[in-house]
Automatic annotation (TrEMBL):
GO terms for cellular component: membrane. The keyword Transmembrane applies. Residues 11-397 form the SLC26A/SulP transporter domain. This is SulP family inorganic anion transporter. Keywords: Membrane, Transmembrane, Transmembrane helix. Its main location: membrane. One of its GO terms (biological process) is transmembrane transport.
Amino acid sequence: MTKKINLFANLKSDFASGLVVFLVALPLCLGIAMASGAPLFSGIISGIIGGIVVGYLSTSNISVSGPAAGLTAIVLTAITDLGAFDIFLTAVFIAGLVQLILGFVKAGSISNYFPTNVIEGMLAGIGIIIILKQLPHAFGYDNDFEGDQAFSQMDGSNTFSTLFGIFDYIQIGSIVITLVSMAILISWDKVPFLKKLKLVPGALIAVALGVILNEIFIGTGSALAIGKEHLVSLPVPSSFEEFKSIIVTPNLSGVTNPKVWVVAFTIAIVASIETLLSIEAADRMDVQKRYTDTNKELKAQGIGNMVSSLLGGLPLTSVIVRSSANSNSGAKSKMSTIIHGLLLLISVLAIPVILNKIPLATLAAILILVGYKLAKPATFKHFWEKGKYQFVPFIATLLAVVFLDLLKGVALGIMISIIFVLKGNLKRAYYFRKEEYADGDVIHIDLAQEVSFLNKAAIKQTLNHIPENSKVIIDAKDTVYIAHDILDLIHEFKTTRAVDNNIKVKLKGFKKAYQLENTEGSQNHVTIEHYYDAARRVMVKKEITDEEFIKE
């Protein structure tokens, strides 16, 4: 059950985070449009629609939508094959319609089958990509477009060769601005008197100071001055008529072209999968552990793509980089996403000249810190301590995301996870039983002998539909194996949603230690205390009746 959200309840923190996402999104929208062979303004339109339209319709509190780097190759090829951008927009409109249908047939439910270690591996991989891709921009080497996530780049080089190329194109001014920006961003949350200025995000101060420093360099004729090729480059219409000419509408005659339909279905499938992966990741980053209705998300994405195509925008998806920046900046609700879209709209109409003074180096500093938070050493240590059956899918996903792409990386991680589960459950049957209940009854959830991440969807749905003011008994007395995903899910339910909705929870039969990686020769035991803090630890040592539970 979901509570009605007041979009203005956390306006102070949401505005600050929306402002940071806007600063991150602006160069990404332009870079992705450039790499896609589309008009630069089409990327901005997509970002605006992703923020305002999808942000309003979505039930996600953290996710941010816009043009995605994962679609650049598809878009570039499609525009070339179809011969015209307006015909390509027809394919985007059809793709949005397909996504809308997928939402109605509840195709979004497949996101429940993404294991946590694979999602975390994907996030860490994206974090490493961000750091590797932004380091050249931090040093003033801007040959690769903003938002590129591919290891093999379109200019024939790759991520590593671009890193080595830094030394031939170092801009001292860019390095100075990067270091100053990093110092501001790191100290903003650590220096006591700066913490009081939460309404003003550190990223905005870093960007403003970066612009001022470069203007000083230019004004004094310093060798540190950064040229326009190292600044944000937003199209600046000289008149209203010129602005109107930027807007391209779909050429509906393309509906009869079979190639248009092939492109449409390709975009719909890839965009939907990337969106579901990003939504699952965004839910993991949400400190309040709220769940997103993925079927409604597909509908929102479909409508967003239809509107974007009608205004001349690129196809959009939920995107991890902007969602991560949103979460790290303290977003509380989807109002921050809407604010970022509104800021994109206002800025391109009112202050494009000022935006074009922003150095890419200062934006690189913001993104490098976002990347670090996604790929913190603590994350690697966490999965290493969980044992090889958690660590191997995690690290395999990470490496494949970095060296191949997001979809291939996640597919590999899921395949490895399934192989491990099948190996460990080859001769064991498992079940999950859910009883019907009426209001006021004590609800019994009996866990099977073996509960893997494949049971996550059923358990998640059951917990999510438990009414307020209920009494729940989760019984694991017959269970010999519980996956980390399920323990995390139960813990999050007990400590967040159950508290918010006055749901009384009893945990029965949770042994002091579970053999979580239950395969041949494995001795990896993790105590239940690792998952429940001292204030909420439950060790059931006796059977209780429903009447006793109600009295308690």
